[in-house]
Amino acid sequence: MIRLANMTKRFSGHAAVDDVSLTVPEGGFLVLLGPSGCGKSTMLRMLAGLDQPSSGRIEMGGRLVADGSALSLPPERRNAWLVFQSYALWPHMTVAGNVDWPLKVARHPDRAARVEEALAMMGIADLAGRTLSEISGGQQQRVALARMIAQRPKVMLFDEPLSNLDATLRVEMRHEIARLHKATGATAVYVTHDQIEAMTLATHVAVLNKGRVEQFAPPQALLDSPASAFVARFVGTPPANLIPIRAGAWFRRLPDPQLPQIDGHAMLRAEDLALKGPGPRALKAQLMGSIPMMGQRLLTLQVEGTRVTAIAPPAVPLTETMLVTLPDTASVIFDTEGYRLP
Ligand SMILES: Nc1ncnc2c1ncn2[C@@H]1O[C@H](COP(=O)(O)OP(=O)(O)O)[C@@H](O)[C@H]1O
Ligand SMILES: [Mg+2]
User: Fold this and answer.
1) Do 226 and 247 have their domain in common?
2) Is residue 331 very low, low, confident or very high in pLDDT (cuts 50, 70, 90)?
3) Which residues place a Cβ less than 5 A from the ion ligand 2?
4) Which protein residues are within 6 Å of ligand 1, measured from CB?
5) How far, in Å, from the CA of 36 to the mean position of ligand 2?
6) Domain housing 261
7) Is beta strand 204-209 parallel, antiparallel or unpaired with respect to 212-217?
8) Which atom number of ligand 1 is nearest to the Cα of residue 35?
9) Which of 15, 23, 81, 228 is most buried, with most CB under 10 Å away?
10) Is the pLDDT of residue 255 over 90?
11) How confident is the model at residue 155 (pLDDT cuts 50, 70, 90)?
């Protein structure tokens, strides 16, 4: 179990991580998701014990491991292991040597058995005697994961581990990490800016924006009920349409919009928009672009200056000007500040 209470990290007055509180059960998979610079790595470093919070507490496995500046257990006493995007492996050492190294440093008694088991689990037993320069990038990633498994950590920490890999390998390694998590029963904390990774791996996602948690929820809840316009834009493929609803906006001209009188946005998913004939809720739109997507086409359209995305089934002909039919209601409305109305 991991519990963060008001965790804050300031660098010369600026809060890189700002009052984060959340709890993940043992065996859970927490993804820290957000754009570059939002404080993901800083959070992970504090969990690993490489950095100390300015204030706030971190509990791991029922144990207090950090409490502001008063207490910070060193990394080796946290039963956690961190995998980076640059794998931090020794290039001149063999594969087995790399996996063995931290065990050797810790003077572990059953090193050989652990190394063998970890290599087998990652499917790289046949590479044991090769040096790092003799194996591919994907295989190096497997070595970095094997080195972690050999430690049998209670908490596995990952900082964008797949961002150096090509697209095919990334999918493969994502499955490997999911498998590892299941097989070991460890609690995982995984940092990424890639929402697909978040949606496929996580039991819990913390969406971060400028050091603060915008929303902490299971992956599906981020799609069904995003807490803010930031989350709605960041999560979901394609990103949700945010339609202005201020007085005089075109969305107001549709019959029965049942909208609050505020200067916010209505959220509509691409699949909520229909491309069919004229009707009371149909509007003229300019076609700006089209990309194929799973046998259909994803369209970028413009309705009076607002860009919207819609999905065109194969039977719908694409023309310069098209009719977009809006749904009867928008179930999610964001206020002027971008937060969801209850
Ligand atoms: N050691 C440091 N000293 C000063 N500022 C830092 C330090 N580490 C990170 N920061 C700042 O904290 C913010 C969050 O950084 P980081 O956690 O690396 O973001 P992310 O991993 O989400 O891209 C950034 O503004 C970054 O410049
Ligand atoms: Mg980072």
Assistant:
1) no
2) confident
3) 41
4) 11, 16, 34, 36-42
5) 7
6) 243-334
7) antiparallel
8) 22
9) 81
10) no
11) very high
pLDDT tens sequence across 129-144: 999 999 998 899 999 9
**What total number of domains does the chain contain?**
2
Residue with tokens 């046998």: 295
Structure tokens given for 115: 């190394």
Write the pLDDT tens digit of every residue in 11-35. Answer: 998 999 999 999 999 999 999 999 9
Structure tokens at 127: 């590479």
Rounded CA separation 110/47 (Å):
27
Question: In terms of domains, do 258 and 325 share one?
Answer: yes
| pTM reported for the whole predicted model | 0.92
Phi, psi of 296 (to 5 degrees): -120, -170
At residue 328, what is the residue type? Answer: D
Do residues 190 and 167 lie in contact, with contact meaning Cβ atoms separated by under 8 Å? no
Give one word for 206, left, alpha or beta, with left for phi > 0 and alpha for psi -120 to 50: beta
Is residue 241 within 8 Å of residue 302, measured between CB atoms? no
